[in-house]
Design goal:
elongated, three-stranded antiparallel sheet, five-stranded antiparallel sheet, Chondroitinase Ac, Chain A, domain 3
Length: about 150
């Protein structure tokens, strides 16, 4: 026979993820929620694996939607695996009409709505801007040398 349990979901500040887990997930964390299960006495239950998948609905505020911007198609929901010590992706969708991100999971955990970091990491403009500047300068110099050579 199964005993009744209490489920608690609490919002976690993206800034606090490095203390809640070993490290925050790669990318920009929009929102994080920690879902725990307790017995009726308030004691945490160790095993959070469920017999069937559950749907997790994470509400989005106006601020969250502004932070997401045009990244809706890239948005991911990740959970922190205490077994492997890494953040892992779960199946999710964005429902703007209901202003929520909907994910499916088979356990309780720390979940984060994330705008993933671009492949290769970091901000592309940090390195692309200077490279384009050097290429433009090199092309202008080559053009100037070519014009001077044509005059002679």
């Amino acid at each position: 026979m199964r005993e009744p349990v209490q489920i608690q979901a609490r919002q976690v500040s993206p800034d606090d993820l490095t203390t809640a887990a070993s490290a925050a997930p790669a990318g920009k964390v929009v929102k994080a929620t920690d879902i725990d299960v307790f017995d009726l006495g308030g004691r945490p239950l160790g095993s959070t694996k469920l017999g069937a998948p559950i749907t997790i609905e994470i509400q989005l505020t106006n601020e969250d939607i502004r932070a997401i911007g045009d990244n809706l198609t890239n948005l991911e929901v990740m959970y922190f695996s205490e077994v492997s010590g890494i953040w892992e992706k779960v199946s999710s969708t964005v429902d703007l009409n209901r202003r929520e991100v909907v994910a499916t999971a088979d356990h309780f955990s720390l979940f984060a709505v994330v705008i993933p970091q671009p492949a290769g990491g970091g901000n592309t403009w940090l390195w692309l801007g200077p490279v384009l500047g050097v290429l433009t300068l090199a092309a202008a110099t080559a053009l100037l040398i070519r014009r001077r050579a044509q005059r002679v």
